[in-house]
């Protein structure tokens, strides 16, 4: 692991999930936003750590659906494949996600395809459907959040889409047609906090030629 | 140290409440301002560049846990429920982004800063429709009425808003600038804005040029954001975290920095935050209010008294509080609910739009199809609206939520869509209001209560055929613009939106001269309790294609002048419809 100054952001410790649950969530998140070649995926972004910290902190109301949903998903997987989600190959994992979120592209309503009466191998599929919908949303959040939240490690989510992150402002030159936004260095909230004491007074700050 | 008796209590420190509280305090009245949210300072918002905190987790906005709200499409549907359309992507309806932010500044903290004067005809919407399209053009069961005041009455107050609070823009139809006339349909104004327009984002230039080629009349949208230093506030830095976010340099005209400080400096304004007013108290005969009761930060109920009470806590909560306090003798409280459909239209520009820069209101609009002007093009549309470019201020998670239904939702295709398109998104929108009917209203939900045991608000609201028709017509114009701009693809919101809240709810405590058919008079004074004022967008008798806040502010200054016995302001501009507030019959109507 990293020995840089931001050790807390690179931590692989868990505050809610057990190790097995974390592996499952990470495997599903990687199918939502897979990495390939130069494009980083959810695993590299540390999405599972974003989710883990959300569940132990601000989203305690979602702990139950994660616990029950992951248990049901594991039961389903073991009944059908004799293995955990994380042990399956990517294609099989995609099939699993497809059953609950619908096809990658199309009009299906995510998470709404199963009612409480739907059972397979003795498993309540509706809670899995709801879980997958939530993991999809949490993956997006964990991929594009400021790194302070545990995800978007190395700002790789922002790099992918060309979002320069947290800036005090942009100059007229940067806002002009034809400007290459990817030339703007990515900054995070951590960078802004370090600069906070050097901010000029509001009366002069508008000139904003600091870049 | 806290007193229990004041000259005036203002409930809600948002757009209207902060302005009135500060005006009264500066004139020497001892004012208590109560807000159920926090008291904010600039320091609280220095590191606001955070999409998780303010967007995904809604740090500023109410929650269904504390402020439950139920909905049904029509009365005949029976019981109302927590609306499914309010459930966010996590399915929890928490946070609920659609009502305004809580705390000092209220909705003006999170708002985009769209700041419009209404045009002259908007004050006579009903009679204009009937004169032009016939008496039976309006739908059955409608409750539309003209305003009891005209544009001329508000012109000097609009001017006061723009110069006191700080609005940027470039006006048209100005007394002393006859050559500056980009928007031929702008209502006449005594003078221009105190600051020039904000810096345009790159895709907005493309929008403006396309509109010009189509023969429309693009003009720069005015904005409640300082474009240069204004009264100690910074000019905009174009940081791109604007709508839905507080401002880190006070460039945005939020009342916690634009209005409250002057009131506090007078020494006469006390602000108590985290205080949730639950009842307006009255004398035994009900003709006067004596003060309010609120739950303090620890949950204890506290009574405070005042000679006058001003409710300024949004159209929805104003109505809920009146109803929960039993103040509704004529049955008009909560009626005539109106809100906006946005007609969102998003597309992909041929070159980078860099949508993370700038603000949504650093934009261009066209008014060729506003109000009654639309009748020249299509007489099946009752009332038109401006089309407004939304060139920037988009962060990645918000764009994920705005992706077209045909785009991949997960997998490599989803990742690639964001990689290839985020830098090139751009959007435009319009705002069309529903025609109020007997079946658009709010009341108290008989089944649901908040954690303090108070009744929840119940909305009854559906979109009518005419409401859809307005969205549909403007959608056709947007497609022409999109084509002319060379957008490589675009996607559109349905003409019948699933939502029924827009942060632009109005009409629920209608103002009028007749105490039998309205809740307050033109100054916001309750017909039922003579020392109670109920102010804000709830006063609007009709609603149109514009954001409500500049008019809410103008009316708040009017209320303050009235309470303080100041002479009302008059305007030098020439108008089609004369002012009515200075006329003698107005004095008589207040003698009752």
Walkthrough of the structure:
The complex is a heterodimer of chains A (211) and B (592). Chain A has 211 residues and is mainly alpha-helical. Chain A folds into two domains: 142 residues, no CATH class; 34 residues, no CATH class. Helices cover 47% and strands 2% of the residues of chain A. Chain A has ten helices and two strands, in the order αααααββααααα. In chain A, β1 and β2 form a beta hairpin. In chain A, α3 crosses α6. The longest helix of chain A is centred in the middle third of the chain and has 20 residues. Chain B is of the alpha/beta class. Chain B has one domain: FAD/NAD(P)-binding domain, CATH 3.50.50.60. Chain B is built from 14 helices and 18 strands. In chain B, a hairpin with a 6-residue loop joins β6 and β7. Chain B starts with a strand and ends with a helix. The C terminus of chain B is likely disordered. At the A-B interface, α5, α6, α7, α8 and α9 of A face α2, α10 and α11 of B.
Instruction: Please tally the helical runs of chain B, counting DSSP H or I stretches of 4 or more residues.
Output: 14
Query: How does CATH name the architecture of chain B?
Result: 3-Layer(bba) Sandwich
Given as residue ranges, the uncertain stretches of chain B (5+ residues, pLDDT < 50) are 584-592
Shape of chain A: elongated
What general outline of chain B do the C-alpha atoms trace?
globular
Helix content of chain A: 40-55%
Tally the helices of chain A: 10
**Considering DSSP H and I runs of 4 or more, what fraction of the residues of chain B is helical?**
10-25%
Radius of gyration of chain A (CA) equals 20 Å
Strand content of chain B: 15-25%
Largest sheet of chain B: 7 strands, mixed
* Domain unit count of chain B: 1
Whole-Å distance between the termini of chain B?
40 Å
Radius of gyration of chain B (CA) equals 23 Å
Question: How many strands in all of chain B?
Answer: 18
The CATH superfamily of chain B turns out to be FAD/NAD(P)-binding domain
Q: Pairing-aware structural class of the strands and helices of chain B?
A: alpha/beta
